[in-house]
Amino acid sequence: MAKLNKEYIALLSENNNPSTNFWKLKKRIRQDAKLPGVAIDVRRSDFFIEILSLMKAGVINKEDLADFSKDVTDWIDQFLE
To answer: Rounded to the nearest 5°, which phi and psi values hold at 13?
Structure first.
């Protein structure tokens, strides 16, 4: 989120008409809101798929899974190999 905030600030700071910057920002936020690193609704049945999606998007990495069970980390390891 910090990275996105910096990008939003840069967008708002562009040397354009302020309303142009606002509408560009609104469009960008709408697009970013769909990214898995911004908001995600996880159902139990989609858990593993969502974990892999977050990893693929670079939102989390293998070290972030350290507190998960060995079954979960083993399953993820199988797909990463």
So the answer is: -90, -5
How many C-beta neighbours within 10 Å does residue 42 have?
13
- Side chain identity at residue 72, one-letter code: V
End-to-end Cα distance, the chain: 29
Rounded to whole angstroms, the Cα distance separating 81 from 76 reads: 9
Helices (H) then strands (E): counts for the chain: 4, 0
Q: What angle do CA 78, 53, 24 make, to 5 degrees?
A: 160
DSSP category for residue 35: S
The tens digit of pLDDT for each residue in 56-67 reads 888 888 888 889
